Automatic annotation (TrEMBL), chain B:
Subcellular location field: Cell inner membrane
Species whose genome carries this gene: Marinobacter adhaerens
One Pfam family in the UniProt entry: BPD_transp_2
NCBIfam families for the chain: PRK10740.1
Segments crossing the lipid bilayer: 20-38, 45-64, 70-90, 102-121, 154-174, 203-226, 232-265
Coiled-coil spans in chain: none
Membrane topology listed for this record: Multi-pass membrane protein
One GO cellular component term: plasma membrane
Annotated keywords: Amino-acid transport, Cell inner membrane, Cell membrane, Membrane, Transmembrane, Transmembrane helix, Transport
Family matches, as PANTHER family: BRANCHED-CHAIN AMINO ACID TRANSPORT SYSTEM PERMEASE PROTEIN LIVH, HIGH-AFFINITY BRANCHED-CHAIN AMINO ACID TRANSPORT SYSTEM PERMEASE PROTEIN LIVH
Family: Belongs to the binding-protein-dependent transport system permease family. LivHM subfamily.
Protein's name according to its UniProt entry: High-affinity branched-chain amino acid ABC transporter permease LivH
Amino acid sequence: MLEVQNLSMRFGGLLAVDQVSLDVQEQEIVSIIGPNGAGKTTVFNCMSGFYKPTGGKIIFKGKEIQGRPDYKISRLGMVRTFQHVRLFTRLSVVENLLVAQHRHLNTNMLAGLIGTRNYREREQRALDRAAYWLERVGLLELANRDAGNLAYGQQRRLEIARCMVTEPSLLMLDEPAAGLNPAETKELNQLIVSLKEAYNVSVVLIEHDMSLVMDISDRINVISQGCPLASGTPEEIRQNDDVIKAYLGEA
Amino acid sequence: MQDLLYFSQQLINGLTIGSAYALIAIGYTMVYGIIGMINFAHGEIYMIGAYTALIAITGMTALGLAWLPLILLVALICAMIVSSSMGWAVERVAYRPVRGRHRLIPLISAIGMSIFLQNYVHLAQGSRNVGFPALIEGGFTFGSGEAFQMSLSYMQITIFITTLICMTVLSMFISRSRTGRACRAVSQDLGMASLLGIDTNRIISVTFVIGAALAAVAGLLLGMYYGSVDPLFGFIAGLKAFTAAVLGGIGSIPGAMLGGLILGVSESMTSSYLSGEYKDVVSFGLLILILLFKPTGLLGKPEVEKI
């Protein structure tokens, strides 16, 4: 469903990403790993429309999307999270999920003032979906708390729920386990796998936590200093000499 | 008794003018809250609202309409429509094309817009001040028999009640409606809101329109209260309302309300107990003090820089 062909991104004299290619099939978890500064997040930023890539193609559901504005890409069903949590901290937990469904809602202000039936029905549906996802990520009893007051692990899960209420077909997670303790990482692990199986979502994952990557990935792409280094199943990557060198240094 | 009556009178006068400041200040604070920019043409939008209301009133009186509530309602609606479209147009012409550039650029373009609108009204309506009919006359007096009598005019009551209604509707809109919710989200993280598929341009337009509509309400009310308007009518009021917004904490809507009231009361107290000439000294002195000691304002939240 997603195909990235020879993606390059140059900032002035620095070639941050050089000819990276990857593809994601339906219901697949694909990880991007690499040492710090390898250009993983830059690849993400190009894919989600934050940067306009200087070379290469990104094809999502048969459409070339490189260089399109971010809100248009997200409307095609591709949503992402960031390395640091970016919730609306002064909105309540449930409001965070309602705002994410804004474009599915009837936003006619007049209808809102009068409170027409259609308006209330849609609001109710949005609320139901929000409640469903809150239950799913175990935050239902905290629904009216300000999102900024949640514990860090809860904020991470809320962020994933906020992506899921938009009913995406591709979820891009940038270091979702960063800052989580081992127990929380394990929960996250199960959550991601269940998303793929139950909701027909493909996942692209950037992660440093190797246990998470090796456990749940169907395929792994390794990049180093902006260049593709290897790609394959977790087993193949584990035994790849280049990868071991890149991570441990030349012996 | 005498002193108490005098004090209450100043308090009433201060709260009257303060609630009108608060109405104008909402426009500054909402726009700042969303795009982090001061809309310096906002005072002019308010002035245009006052002129539109005056033109509507004059027109209706010429047509022989005499029923006061209808005249006021039509004048209010006309003023709100014209000011709102003006607010919308100003955003499209002067702010959207330069959004995302260096902070100084939209500032200059806002000041340019303000000068343009002021001079446009100079040309179209003349530079002399025009009398504004006092449609709501009379009131209550308290303390008969004393040397000083306290008065509470119907006009002042109208200003309080209208402001109260506007503020209530606005608070409900912001806290309950979908668009209000989206406004809050956009003001917290515009990039993220856009990524979630919210049409941020539309939300920004909505903010300008709401601010302008409230300024038009203030324009009609203060036009009647002062009894005259001129093309510079919006300049000082705009500065005062901006001060009120900063005082209360720019970006915070309850802050703008509180800031307006505090500013109005302190002005009226200064002019009566000190001297009318010190009025502006005190209000802008307050602005300087607040910027020195509590830059986020009374109810403002500190900007947390995330790294």
